[in-house]
Fold:
Amino acid sequence: MITFVYPKLLYLLLIIPVAVLIFMMSRAARLKRMSRFGKPELLNPLMPEASKYVPWIKFSLVMGAMAMLIIILARPIATVSTTDDEPGKETTARGIEVVICMDVSRSMLASSTDEPDGIDRLKRAKHILERLIGKMNDDKVGLIVFAGDAYTQLPITADYISAKMFINSISTEMVPTQGTAIGSAIEMAMNSFNPDDKFQKAIVIITDGENFEDDAVSMAKKASDAGIQVDVIGIGSGTPMPIPVSESRANEYMRDMNGQIARSALDVETAEKIAGAGKGIFVDGASSTAVDDLDEQLSTLAKTEYLKKMATPRSQQFPVFAWIAFVLLFIEAFMLNRKISWLTKYTFFLEKRD
Structure:
């Protein structure tokens, strides 16, 4: 089975039908211009080397190569196995279930340090998330991204390879509605758990703590009452930092209604209240021991025994598509626009006779 690290890039394949339409229009316009000089049946004998089919063949080769390049950009990955009996093999494991809620609001593009040009909060959060998943052995993990709304990025799974793969695709463009709705993220995380299983459960929120949309504290209390621990990792510093407009325009900053540059700081007080209501801990993401502290906290939850299906390794598949693109472009480069001499010996279409 082939999956993609950046599946949204496959939308670029829509360029191909648009290009086909433009090419067809240009060919029709060419025939219309030629008709000014005479009827096609009279002009064709004057251009014995001109081919009606080669331009289409060359265009098809270029479009095929473009499709392969777009697929390469989306980074295709296939599940492979080293032995015939490895896929689907189950083993006994003991662990907990953890749903990680990642803040992807625009304030996460602000500097995570006291310097305006420091590493942005989103990059630091992704680094912490990768280290946190790297410390897991037999726990199950799920991933939710949120800003003004919350969306499930990865359902609860024991496949850490897939989990790490999704980390690369996290960006502030994933959620169209801006804002910070930590409460909605907690509610979605609660609904992600299966209420019938016996796993100990935890929700880890990675955020700068600025919550504008809902009552996250009461939602964390609701999670705690349901037996779910809520921990918070705070990203950023106490110094308000300017917020970039987007990831691609890091040097342009958002402005408020008065035209002043909008700034954002880590709201430690709110983050601590959420963690307190959820009977978890608040961890400063700037601390070198942040991941270790959270891992120690999660280890206080009792582990449940279950059958774990072993994840099979994954391999990059882009070389296959790269070779296909190379072959197509190679053929196109050496194909002339005139008729192919050796093909003129064969008749593919019968002439219509009266």
